[in-house]
Amino acid sequence: MTKDVTAVVRSQFGVAAADYATSDVHAKGESLARIVELAAPQQNWRVLDVATGAGHMAAAFAPHVASVVAGDITDEMLAETAKLAAARNLSNMTTAKAEAGALPFEDESFDLVCCRLAAHHFPDLARFVGEVRRVLKKGGRFALVDNVAPDAQQLPGASASELDDATAAYNAFEKLRDPSHGFAPPPETWIALLKSDGFAIVAREQFGKELDFESWVTRMRCAPSTVTELDRILTAGSPNLRKFLKPRRDESGALYFTLQELLLVAGKGA
Ligand SMILES: C[S@@+](CC[C@H](N)C(=O)[O-])C[C@H]1O[C@@H](n2cnc3c(N)ncnc32)[C@H](O)[C@@H]1O
Question: I need a surface site. Which of 30, 82, 159, 216 has the fewest CB within 10 A?
Fold first, then answer.
């Protein structure tokens, strides 16, 4: 990872760390309990949560396993994670400075690696998957949750090039709001990447989550001109992007839209 990308992530998330600690999307999102169920954690497991943010995923696994290492590159996020662990009395949870593409851990040292709502920041997804494979024990599991780009399920009837355009438009929309956004691929790209690295898909689910536009832009401290442009894209931008994001206003005029969250559990073979 280049220093520039690391710096952009740290400057975006450093100031926003406390907001992520209380964000409903992160603290209470539907994917949190569901990915724990799908990963079926065991009491003797050693777990690594990559890009833990304010530690919500690490804290969701901690009561079910022997230990959890919560890793991130942003010091302020690690401080929020330590606060959460202390507040919930999770003495088996520790924090570590850890970059997703160069995890500072021994080969085959974890039973489960998890990563939620973060991989779209990583500059090299194949490298990340390779690192996950390296630190997982044989037979270990990888639990991924992330926002994904549109596929044919979301945009039925769209041609391959229209789907590519919609993926590019979706990622540009995210990057305008958060300059540290890298790339969120469609689901099949994740599956192909995992399979090509020898993982078998154990569980796959996907659901739409409703986002409140106002808190989504506020969490990233978007400038007023950026908020105006994001609002324009949602309400008058490319038709396929709007079909995917389903923007709508309530009676008070507040804007909402939907993002697609993919949940995958993959097993590392022998
Ligand atoms: C949205 S937050 C994570 C949310 C959290 N996993 C949860 O479930 O609530 C994204 C996090 O990714 C971290 N991050 C971004 N790029 C990273 C990288 N290359 N390596 C490790 N952490 C990274 C950021 O510092 C930030 O804390």
Answer: 159
Query: What's the pLDDT tens digit per position in 77-106?
Result: 999 999 999 999 999 999 999 999 999 999
Residue 244 contacts residue 150 (beta carbons within 8 Å)? yes
**Looking at the chain, how many residues does it have?**
270
Pocket test for ligand 1, best of 5, 30, 72 (most atoms within 8 A of CB): 72
C-beta 48 within 6 A of ligand 1: no
Q: Who's near 151: CB < 8 A, 6+ residues apart?
A: 163, 186, 187, 188
Residue 1: pLDDT above 60? no
Report whether pLDDT(2) > 60.
no
3-state SS assignment for residue 249: strand
Q: Which helix (DSSP H) or strand (DSSP E) does residue 204 occupy? A: strand 199-212
Nearest CA to ligand 1 atom 27: 53
**Distance between Cα 51 and ligand 1 center (Å):** 4
3 C-alpha to center of ligand 1: Å?
16
Separation between Cα atoms, residue 236 and residue 245, nearest integer Å: 12
Q: How far apart are CA 219 and CA 234, in angstroms?
A: 18
Residues 77 and 14: their CA atoms lie apart, in Å, by 7
Give the Å distance between the CA of 151 and the centre of ligand 1: 24
Q: How far is CA 50 from the centre of its chain?
A: 10
What does 98-134 look like in DSSP terms, one character per residue? Answer: -BTTB--S-TT-EEEEEEES-GGG-S-HHHHHHHHHH
Written as one letter, the residue type at 145 is V
Cα–Cα distance between 122 and 8 in angstroms, integer? 12
